[in-house]
Write a structure and sequence with these properties.
- By secondary structure, the chain is mainly α.
- Helices cover 72% and strands 0% of the residues.
- The chain starts with a helix and ends with a helix.
- The chain crosses the membrane at residues 15-34, 46-67, 74-94, 100-124, 136-154, 160-176, 227-247, 259-281, 302-324, 330-350, 393-414, 420-442.
- Keywords: Membrane, Transmembrane, Transmembrane helix.
């Protein structure tokens, strides 16, 4: 009877994705309201950038500390965000608060920090529903800023009510009876059962922080051949993140002064069309670009890598074109922002597929193992723990560096105007990309092709290169080092026979 009352998983997944997208867009509107309120205090780009920095600090804290617990009820976070939004309705819209600039900025900064902390913790909580799809996450990242900016500056008096309307669908879904949800409720009992059934594949090993400080993350990425791509992606995320947190509100104020605020709707439409084009192209290419947890076929991987490495150049060129004085007509702004969104969406789709996780690599090539031969689960748990620590280190480092660069971007906006900052950022990105991609990216691509066309008859699979880092003791497992080497040799001989047989 309980199974009959549960909602279908496919329908539940679509329902969650729609509600989650609505809630995330509502959170973006709330962020743009706070930034617009800060701008109305004294039209200071630095003060507005500090409010954006407080918002980033709250989201970083929520993503790193408030989503690791096994049982955080999402409905409590959603209710807290709704109450926080209701209190902000009492603030004057697009009018200065009583008091001087910096005390009001400090008050808005605290409000921004706690709103971001509660809102992002709410979105990132585990729910008894299927996970958020890749397309929905891309839509939130690409459309959130312009969607919130358009509502706040075109409909300032209604933006608060529209924020609440966007938040309500996901909040209603969180209050859905757990007995009728598509999946079991996340919690200690379900997690413990999953840990017992998965065995060593669910081992969570703890590495010391000294391993990261001493360059363990660098050696790990270099050993897996992902160092150049990861550094490029992290650099882009830091620079572009700081720019798009400092620029939108001053840009909207310029359009308001010129009486051309409806351009924001055309810019939003350009982003929607660019995303629609990317999603439409995924349909005929689904044989090559599958889900994020699938590997790209070997014959298409060099082409996908070349296409991906072209996208940062397109983003830098579009950023530069958005700031050029001769390209400030509405049609050019729409085309340049659409091109930027198109390149960013392609980059966001190809990046996780060009940098697959260790579990994805092993799972996709599991059929190559001989019957009855299994990998050492202790060693795999150690490798997965390294990967998890490196990813967390990169995420926190990107967030902290973006926090530091956002006030600098706001200060430069006040000195050089929005166009000057965009031109400076576009030129700087182009120069860095020529140096980094030219020396690292294409060299990695050439090395990959040379490895493919080399005289060696066998190239070891990723699991055959598993080994402990320099200065790190290997984890305790059921097999010794000699037995692990014998296992790798047996897999290597088996695959060599398959290739030449």
């Amino acid at each position: 009877m309980l199974a009959e009352r549960r909602l279908d998983a496919v329908i539940g997944g679509r329902l969650l994705n729609a509600c989650w997208l609505s809630g995330s867009l509502g959170l973006s509107v709330l962020q743009m309201r706070l930034l617009a309120q800060s701008w109305s205090q004294g039209r200071e780009a630095l003060a507005t950038a500090l409010i954006a920095t407080a918002w980033l600090a709250g989201s970083l804290l929520a993503a790193t500390l408030l989503t690791t617990s096994r049982s955080n009820p999402a409905r409590y976070w959603g209710t807290g965000l709704l109450l926080c939004t209701l209190t902000q309705l009492a603030l004057p819209v697009m009018r200065p608060l009583p008091g001087t600039l910096w005390p009001a900025t400090a008050a808005l900064g605290l409000l921004s920090f706690f709103s971001s902390l509660i809102g992002n913790a709410w979105l990132l909580q585990r729910r008894p529903w299927p996970g958020v799809e890749e397309r929905i996450a891309l839509m939130r990242a690409a459309l959130g800023t312009m969607f919130g900016l358009s509502l706040v500056w075109l409909l300032p008096a209604w933006s608060g009510l529209l924020t609440i309307l966007c938040l309500l669908p996901l909040l209603f879904l969180d209050y859905w009876p757990e007995a009728r949800a598509p999946l079991p409720t996340p919690g200690r009992m379900v997690d413990n059962w999953f840990d017992l059934t998965e065995g060593a594949r669910r081992w969570r090993l703890q590495l010391t922080f000294d391993w990261l400080i001493q360059g363990g993350w660098w050696r790990y990425l270099a050993r897996r051949g992902q160092l150049g791509l990861v550094l490029l992606a992290s650099g882009l995320a830091i620079v572009l993140g700081s720019i798009w947190n400092a620029v939108p509100t001053p840009f909207a104020s310029i359009l308001q002064a010129q009486g051309t605020l409806p351009i924001l709707l055309w810019l939003l439409l350009a982003q929607v069309l660019a995303l629609s084009l990317v999603f439409a192209l995924q349909v005929p290419l689904r044989g090559m670009l599958g889900p994020p947890d699938r590997l790209i076929p070997e014959r298409w991987r060099p082409w996908c890598q070349a296409v991906a490495l072209c996208q940062p150049f397109l983003m830098a060129i579009s950023l530069l074109a958005l700031g050029l004085p001769n390209l400030q007509a509405p049609v050019w702004l729409v085309l340049n922002l659409g091109l930027y969104t198109l390149a960013a969406a392609i980059w966001g789709i190809l990046l996780p597929r060009l940098r697959p996780s260790l579990s994805t690599v092993i799972f996709s090539q599991r059929h190559l193992l001989p019957p009855g031969l299994a990998l050492d689960q202790g060693q795999l748990a150690y490798e997965r723990s390294q990967e998890e620590h490196v990813n967390r280190f990169l995420f926190v480092s990107e967030g902290l560096l973006t926090l530091l660069l956002t006030p600098l971007a706001g200060w430069l906006t006040g000195r050089w105007t929005v166009d000057g900052l965009l031109i400076f950022a576009g030129r700087g990105l182009l120069l860095l990309l020529v140096l980094s991609v030219g020396l690292v990216g294409f060299r990695q691509l050439i090395g990959y092709r040379a490895e493919e066309s080399g005289s060696a008859a066998f190239r070891p699979a990723p699991w055959e290169r598993l080994g402990h880092q320099t200065g790190q003791a290997p984890p305790l497992g059921p097999t010794s080092a000699h037995e692990q080497a014998s296992l790798v040799e047996e897999i290597e001989q088996f695959l060599r026979k398959r290739q030449h047989g």
